[in-house]
Amino acid sequence: MRNLVLVAAAALAMVPATLHAAEGTGGIRGSVSDRDVAAPLSGVRVTVVGTTLSTLTDTDGHYVLERVPAGEHTLIFSKDGYEREVANVLVTPDRLAQTDVQLNAEIIEMEELVVTGADLLADSELGLLEIPRAAERSEAALTRSRGAPPYAGSEAVRRSRASASANP
Fold first, then answer.
1. Strand (E) positions, 17-152?
2. What domains, with CATH codes, occur in the chain?
3. Which of 1, 42, 139, 144 is the most exposed place for a label (fewest CB within 10 A)?
4. Mean pLDDT throughout 115-128?
């Protein structure tokens, strides 16, 4: 009987602490945008330091964090290609705190990059076959630009073959 009373007393002692914890939470909402173009940023990770609370911004750059313990918190905003931003926010019970931030694009300096091209088919038979085809396409384009109908040469060849087969 004495053990039952101790268990009941312990359970009753926990109830106010649980209610107090539920009453001691609020939320944080806001938006994240690109500082240079003022466009909303989706997929930004918003993390409450010292907790397991984290979320991503939606397609409009908005976020909401719920059940955040009341008190002063530090938020970290991070996204690939952008500098990390840190903001402090005060969360009050049963209220939503507003925190909007703008992220700067991350600039990465690199060594000079030189791009060169090479014709991998130039010294092969396939490369040699490509040269006449390119010349034929250029000649056809030139003929069309002078006012001749497209494929005029091929029409003349077809007519001459037809007349040759008609006159044996």
1. 25-34, 45-48, 54-56, 62-69, 71-78, 85-91, 96-98, 101-103
2. 2-103 (2.60.40.1120), 110-163 (no CATH)
3. 1
4. 69
